[in-house]
């Protein structure tokens, strides 16, 4: 079997960690049990560019149980868990091409390798797989039934491709499922980002000034968790509605140029470029700790910072200290990459259970609707979203009410008044 991992001898440790995560993924487990019986993905080749973590491993195992030939590469060089990659290869016979800390050339070599498998379905986290396929491997497009995308960043990219008329096959925006972005983005990113910052720095959040750039679902989660740990939270935004929402939720709101003067911590979660830029570094408080939890490492302009400093050193794992000419020190976590996956372990399995259940069901949906979908970005069908929520509630022992026939008729009627 073709694969490229750091150390295959790490497989036993990785297998135990995969089993630990699986215990908290009961929705995906139920889907896997059905897939094993029905084999809805039989004969389908799936190339996935996702974070190589214990939770992703359970998704890969589920897809294989459904009959698919699965190939996995990393969507971020610093998020790969080498023991998990080894376990997938040795224990589950799933080819993986990912090494923690791999350079850019290796990252793309691995990406090209999984594309060479001629996928029928692509799975993306950030959009690199589909983007590369469209730009460099258009010969493979006739084989592709469709793709899925896990992140806000990737969905933005593919909607732009659709708008420009260059998207060649349907893509399901898994990120836009309610059971994904309302939970994964908010509760998952909220907890795992704080986890990454604390593991990297061992600093106290209580009493600190904590700046969150962006008040989408990820930003809401980070702000909520920072506030819960006693931080004074400032939100920066460009969207007046989100800025108003942040203020009504009890947070201070101001431009980044003002926030950096007070910030002990800054986290970017916008999906945009240069959110923390040169003029922000020039006005930044001494000792500020800056991190990113958006998908790509573009939100903090580290290149501009490096041109301003007189000294740089790694003071802790995942902490780079930059000293400016005036003596101020600025700390960048995880090289500006996803701090929750680079310095910690990413989202808890309980949250990824729903996200990856959506991935598995979306792959099945693409196969069932082969040839019936246009080259557009689609939301996860409501019936799949509701099914994931229903299964999750069942695993939590929670029951809910059902509408009576009278209530259904009332809601469907326009004739009933006051």
UniProtKB/TrEMBL annotation:
Pathways per UniProt: Amino-acid biosynthesis; L-homocysteine biosynthesis; L-homocysteine from S-adenosyl-L-homocysteine: step 1/1
Keywords: Cytoplasm, Hydrolase, NAD, One-carbon metabolism
Co-factor requirement: NAD(+)
A GO term, aspect molecular function: adenosylhomocysteinase activity
Key word Repeat present: no
Domain S-adenosyl-L-homocysteine hydrolase NAD binding residues, every copy: 185-346
Catalytic activity, reaction form: S-adenosyl-L-homocysteine + H2O = L-homocysteine + adenosine
Cofactor note: Binds 1 NAD(+) per subunit.
Keyword NAD included in the entry's annotation: yes
Annotated NAD(+) binding sites: 151-153, 185, 214-221, 237, 272, 293-295, 340, 347
Subcellular location: Cytoplasm
Single GO biological process annotation from the record: L-homocysteine biosynthetic process
EC id: 3.13.2.1
Binding site for substrate: 53, 125, 150, 180, 184
Gene Ontology cellular component list: cytosol
Xref: Pfam families: AdoHcyase, AdoHcyase_NAD
Matching SMART domains: AdoHcyase, AdoHcyase_NAD
Similarity remark: Belongs to the adenosylhomocysteinase family.
PANTHER family in alphabetical order: ADENOSYLHOMOCYSTEINASE
Function description: May play a key role in the regulation of the intracellular concentration of adenosylhomocysteine.
HAMAP family cross-referenced by the UniProt entry: AdoHcyase
Name of the protein this chain belongs to: Adenosylhomocysteinase
Source organism per UniProt: Hydrogenothermus marinus
Lineage: Bacteria, Pseudomonadati, Aquificota, Aquificia, Aquificales
């Amino acid at each position: 079997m073709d694969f490229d991992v750091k150390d295959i001898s790490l497989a036993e440790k990785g297998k135990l960690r995969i089993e630990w995560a699986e215990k908290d993924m009961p929705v995906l487990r139920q889907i896997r049990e059905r897939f094993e019986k029905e084999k809805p993905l039989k004969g389908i080749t799936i190339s996935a560019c996702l974070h190589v973590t214990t939770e992703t491993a359970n998704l890969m195992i589920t897809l294989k149980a459904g009959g698919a030939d699965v190939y996995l590469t990393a969507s971020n060089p610093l998020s790969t868990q080498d023991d998990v990659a080894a376990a997938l290869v040795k224990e589950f016979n799933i080819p993986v091409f990912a090494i923690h800390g791999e350079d850019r050339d290796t990252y793309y070599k691995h990406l090209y390798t999984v594309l060479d498998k001629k996928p029928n379905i692509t799975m993306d986290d950030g959009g690199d797989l589909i983007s590369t396929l469209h730009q460099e491997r258009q010969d493979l497009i006739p084989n592709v039934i469709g793709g899925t995308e896990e992140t806000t960043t990737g969905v933005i990219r593919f909607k732009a491709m659709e708008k420009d008329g260059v998207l060649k096959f349907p893509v399901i925006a898994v990120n836009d499922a309610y059971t994904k972005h309302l939970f994964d983005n908010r509760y998952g990113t909220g907890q795992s980002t704080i986890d990454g910052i604390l593991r990297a720095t061992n600093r106290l959040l209580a009493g600190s000034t904590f700046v969150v750039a962006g008040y989408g679902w990820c930003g809401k989660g980070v702000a909520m968790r920072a506030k819960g740990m006693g931080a004074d939270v400032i939100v920066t935004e460009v969207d007046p509605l989100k800025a108003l929402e942040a203020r009504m939720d009890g947070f201070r709101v101001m431009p980044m140029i003002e926030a950096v003067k007070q910030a002990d911590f800054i986290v970017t979660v916008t999906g945009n470029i240069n959110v923390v830029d040169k003029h922000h570094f020039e006005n930044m408080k001494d000792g500020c700790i800056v991190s990113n939890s958006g998908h790509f490492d573009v939100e903090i302009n580290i290149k501009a910072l490096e041109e301003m400093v007189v000294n740089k050193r790694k003071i802790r794992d995942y902490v780079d200290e930059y000293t400016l000419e005036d003596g101020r020190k600025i700390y960048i976590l995880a090289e500006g990459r996803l701090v929750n996956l680079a310095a910690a372990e990413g989202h808890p399995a309980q949250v990824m259970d729903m996200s990856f259940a959506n991935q598995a069901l979306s792959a099945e949906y693409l196969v069932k609707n082969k040839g019936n979908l246009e080259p557009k970005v689609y939301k996860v069908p409501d019936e799949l979203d509701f099914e994931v929520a229903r299964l999750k509630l069942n695993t939590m022992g929670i029951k809910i009410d059902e509408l009576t026939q009278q209530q259904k008729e009332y809601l469907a009627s326009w004739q009933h008044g006051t």
